[in-house]
Amino acid sequence: MSRLNKDILFLTFERLKDDSKSLFSCLMVNKLWCETVIPILWRNPWNYSINYSNKSCLFTIITFYLSDDIKDFLERQGIQLPSVTTKSLLFDYLSFCRSINIDIINNIISIGTSLAYNQFLLQQEFYRLFMKKFSELKYFDMRSIKHQIFYFPEANNRLETLCELKCDTSIDSTYFYGLARTCQNIQKLTIINIKPKSNYGIAKLVEVQKNLKYFKWIDEFDDDDFTDPYKEIYLELEKKADTLDHLELIFLYVDYFYYHYTALQDLLPKLYKLKTLIINEFNYDNETMLKMLIYNDLEILDIGYITIHETSIIIENSGGHLKKLSLKPYDFVFYEGNLGEDSLIFIRKIYENCPLIEYLSLAFSPSKDHFIEFEKLLNICQNLKSLLLITSNFYTRETEEKILENGKETLKILIRSAPINLRELRFLYGFKVSLKTLEDFLEKWRGRPALSILTSNPIYEGDDYKKLINKYKSNGVIKSFRHEYTMNIEDMNFTFDF
User: Fold this and answer.
1) The domain 275-497: what is its CATH number?
2) In 10 A of CB 28, how many CB atoms?
3) pLDDT tens, position by position, 431-455
4) Strand partners, 276
5) Higher pLDDT pick, 490 / 420
6) Which of 88, 185, 212, 228 is the most exposed place for a label (fewest CB within 10 A)?
């Protein structure tokens, strides 16, 4: 029974592994809880909401492991190490650790010294200690690293177990060459592009991976001296088509898009196993090439700067597993095609090809035909949880009366046909309903799961609307109702139930 209790506790605490406040509270309950929580907390001790430079507990514990000779040497350099009277620790904390975060460790080290050279010495001893004490290394955030840790004793044994790496392009290529000798089982790779130059070391690191599943690239540079940092990386990613199922590319400037425009068009059709495709800039001016994007396992599609016509083609060639479709409807204001016909096709492609859809950005023209197709979508897509709606009120010069009428019809359809799982509605600026229409909708929603509503229209900030909204919050019809920036409403990953 005691073993069973410990297993249940472990599984429970595992679900709280990112909730430091709860886990820290569990430490104080009893010995069994403490023994169960400590290995979970120490698996990734740099992952919590702590001001590490003002908290000396981690610094004290890590320095406790240093040998007396090393401590004497560091103290002779003027480094202040904590005085510890105990001869042993309750737990072998570092043996539980599976991760290294360079930035956090640098913050901790600043407790002992503010001098750059002394910090360098402390870093060196900490990394040497980690390579010795960790049983394995799973996660490594090496941004701002200054030490070639792969030369430390036992480093090869630690690094060969690495499965998640986060780095940036300021690190010299030779460092990545060193990692590539040992780190060949990385499954998740995140690269922050802060120095827009070709980095052949990163390309080599990608090349040697045997099971790369997740690749994320984020532009964060502020440098006009720009050379193509993408081409070599894309060429290596092509070779990972058999394993890669998550591709996320966040580019900084549209002006630099031409540097990787052709290479990206060549890359995307080859990655046939993608389950997640996230790109904030997308341009396929050749429809024949666009139809080559066939992703039978696609579950998440999150794309900016794309037309609904282009999206319809991708949806048609997906395999029926799509759960999240997040577009940027605000950008459709520049739409140059036939919005009415294209949006009808768009709605049909969704309910024909996405029966499992849970999160959906939906742009359409508020006509009779569109409302019919919209209701059909609601009846078919029964897993829908979150819906972002934007109508062409945003693009056309509708009268105020017509805009209110369109809003009223939209809410009537939602009352008649909204799936039971629907918990969240998002509306951009163009959506507007009268106070009476909103009250009728909320009254008829009574008895269903509480609804969260997000809007960018300031009309709902008026006193009459606020009074009505607060009334239905108090009786449980509304969970939350917020006025937000358009960019947050568009982002289906943005949560607002707080």
Assistant:
1) 3.80.10.10
2) 9
3) 889 999 999 999 999 999 999 999 9
4) 246, 300
5) 420
6) 88
pLDDT digits (tens, 9 = 90+) for 28-58: 778 777 887 888 888 888 887 766 666 678 8
